[in-house]
Amino acid sequence: MTTGSALYDIPGPHARARHRTYGLLATAFLLLLLGWIVYLLIDTGQFAAEKWRPFEYEGIQRLLLRGLGNTLKAFALAAVFSLALGGVLAAGRLSDHRSVRWVATLVVEFFRAMPVLVMIFFVFVALKVQPLPALVIGLTLYNGSVLAEVFRTGVNSVERGQREAAYSLGLRKTQVMAHVLVPQGVRAMLPAIISQLVVALKDTSLGFLITYEEFLHAGKLIAGNLDYGLPFIPVVMIISPVYIGMCMLLSWFANWVAKRERRSLKTKAVEVAPAEPATMLPGDTRT
User: Fold this and answer.
1) CA 99 to chain centroid
2) First and final CA of the chain: distance in angstroms?
3) What is the largest CA-CA distance in the chain?
4) What is the b/e burial string over 236-247, where b = at least 16 CB atoms within 10 angstroms of the residue's CB?
5) Which of 152, 159, 205, 274 is 20–30 Å from 285 (CA)?
6) Which whole number is the average pLDDT over 51-77?
7) Beta partners for 4?
8) Contact at 8 Å (CB) between 150 and 112?
9) What percent of the chain clears pLDDT 70, i.e. is strictly above it?
10) Rounded to two decimals, what is the model's pTM?
């Protein structure tokens, strides 16, 4: 006789066999799909030595490394400025002054609704800014506005009693935010913050549209080379794992920080005096 669970019933022998069958069928389908894709790549000559020969040259390797370095530079600047702008706008939206809240809300809603590419092109074309600053400004305005909402939501997610207890101790609002609300809200914000930073990292690829020599721009130069038979697919197969690896590394770093934060929360055991026989009340006949 099987025992039940509070969330679901434990599957029996027939259900487990059925689940194994579904898993085997899904695995076989995925393997067939992967095999079909590989066959198409081989059939169209994507693994021909001519298309992969460019990556053997030192000049091509330097071009890719320089593009990767420019991508990381743009991401680092955009991440730092976005976090700073998000903090300022979140503080404005949490302000007790109505005019400050309205201005911060207007800025956040405007730049959240504006497409990133439009902002990048506007800064680059209308304001005649260089490619790197134009890319960083566009990414900062958009991601900073989104992070402002993340920060505000994280602070508001802290229980109201924490805020009231801090005010009852005589702390000012700045002290309550810095020492009570923000440290607790960061744990709730962290997944959303990292997700938005991953978006910013991927959006740095928009820089190739304004001639910024980032990683995708370098790949585009190689893919459009007629001397090597337009190696578009090999370039994609080289560039895509690098982007995926950087995003996974960023996610791993976020998980590491979250685990470290959880481990840092230490509570010291308080010694409790042993229980003693209670004093008998008048009229109590218990023994």
Assistant:
1) 32
2) 46
3) 105
4) eebbeeebeebb
5) 274
6) 91
7) 9
8) no
9) 87
10) 0.77
Give the Cα separation of 166 and 155 in Å (integer). Answer: 14
The angle subtended at Cα 75 by Cα 70 and Cα 81, nearest 5°, is: 130
The pair of structure tokens assigned to 179 is: 């020492």
- Residue 106, SS3 per DSSP: helix
Nearest 5°: the CA angle 144, 148, 153 is 150
Confidence category of residue 88, pLDDT binned at 50, 70, 90: very high
Q: How far is CA 23 from CA 19, 27, 32, 110, 165, in A?
A: 6, 6, 14, 47, 52
Determine the Cα angle at 26 with ends 21 and 28, to 5°.
95
Tokens, residue 250: 């960023």
In total, the chain counts a number of residues equal to 287
The pair of structure tokens assigned to 223 is 């893919």
CB 250 within 8 A of CB 269: no
Distance, CA of 173 to CA of 1 (rounded, Å): 59
Question: How far is CA 2 from its chain centroid?
Answer: 42
d(CA 204, CA 123): 15
Backbone CA torsion sign across 153, 89, 255, 258 = negative
Secondary structure (3-state) at 246: helix
Residues 6 or more apart whose Cβ sits within 8 Å of residue 248 = none
**What is the residue whose two structure tokens read 């092109």?**
121
CB 89 within 8 A of CB 108: yes
Q: Which two tokens stand for residue 9?
A: 């019933």
